[in-house]
Design brief:
Blueprint (H helix, E strand, L loop, with lengths): L1 H26 L25 E10 L7 H14 L3 E10 L8 H9 L2 E10 L2 E9 L3 E9 L8 E9 L4 E8 L5 H17 L5 E6 L7 H6 L3 E3 L12 E6 L4 E11 L4 E11 L1
Parallel strand pairs: 1-2, 7-8
Antiparallel strand pairs: 1-12, 2-4, 3-4, 5-6, 6-7, 8-10, 9-10, 11-12
Helix pairs in contact: 2-3
Length: about 280
Amino acid sequence: MRFTINLVSHRLNVRGAAIIACIAAAAMGILLPSCSTTKEVSTKPAAAPKALTTTFRIMSFNTIHALKNKRDVARFAQWIKTIAPDVLALQEIDVPAEGKSGFDVPAELAKQAEMHQFFGMARYWNGFNSGNALFSIYPIVSQRVESLPVGKGKVRRSLAYGVVDLGLRSVAFASTELDDQSAAEREWQVKAIFHLAQRDSEFPLVVCGMFNESVSGKIASVMMKQFLLANLLDEKLSAAEQQIYAVRDSVLKPIAVERYPYDGTRTDAVVATFQISQ
């Protein structure tokens, strides 16, 4: 009987000492093995990781040479900021001809809108080099001007091509203006765009610009053989000659499109939102 009582007393003392030791260890920030709790390990299979996705907004607009001074550009830049595109494609925008003085619209707009910029000349116009331009809040890591084919005596056309680092991946953007008189000429120029997309397939390509015919025209049907047309997401844009395309079978998917009128030119911009999957 005395042995039993002593044994019980001894066990209580040992257990009490262990508890006291745990409390002391906790106070010192130390976890002793005998104080740790056992955690159950789940045997359920881990869920498959979701693909990384992000979105960007691309805006395309024809300035029709309306930006002529700092006041015009300041007004336009404020309008751009209210829409907040990630990438901006402009057509019929001007810089001084080489060796001549004049107002550099893309440089001033980049400064006012706080964006990177690249200008691609298409032709000489009223003392200026006129063409297309790309602006981006992200770095434009490479850039070049691609000439588009034109018939003898026709107005020269080009495409401003730039690769933009969007973070998740790099995407190529092109700003252009096709012939405004001949459907055959426009189709010839579209075939050159197809060649560009195939040649530089390393980067998914978005082509924006003035196509000089509606979405229901022949050129849109030709373009859609290799490109997705963002304008189709809103039937109200079926008559728009300003169009935004993304190459098919790429990581780009148009998910929204909007129209924004600008009082300064009484013309509309088209803004498309794209999703990037990786």
